């Protein structure tokens, strides 16, 4: 059965797209910690980011870096924090979170 993120990528569930290429999709988190909280996911459905191949993981990180740069332009902040949690949705993803202060990253 497709994950909720696969349904989002397929357009079956609406999302606010931040960026996309052939292999990865970035969209705003539905329950953001702060404004601009974004999720980066591979289109290939795998449970956790460490289930990706080394090459896919490296490419996803480069994609996330470019998304983080765009987020920082749209939501001026000290840094864009990155977190991997994966407790709720079994489809690999990286959280990108604009942060002004440490508590912005508290889940
Ligand atoms: P995690 O699996 O890393 O613990 O958290 C999953 C994240 O996905 C949560 O921050 C949650 O708000 C987000 N999320 C879950 N379902 C949806 C959805 O249908 N749409 C969007 N945009 N985000 C979602």
TrEMBL record:
Position of sequence motif Histidine triad motif: 91-95
Q: Which residues form the HIT domain?
A: 4-107
Secretion signal: which residues? none
- Catalytic residue positions: 93
Q: Which GO terms describe its biological process?
A: nucleotide metabolic process
MF (Gene Ontology):
catalytic activity
User: What's the protein name?
Assistant: Histidine triad domain protein
Its source organism is: Phocaeicola coprophilus DSM 18228 = JCM 13818
Q: What part of the full protein is here?
A: 1 to 107 of 135
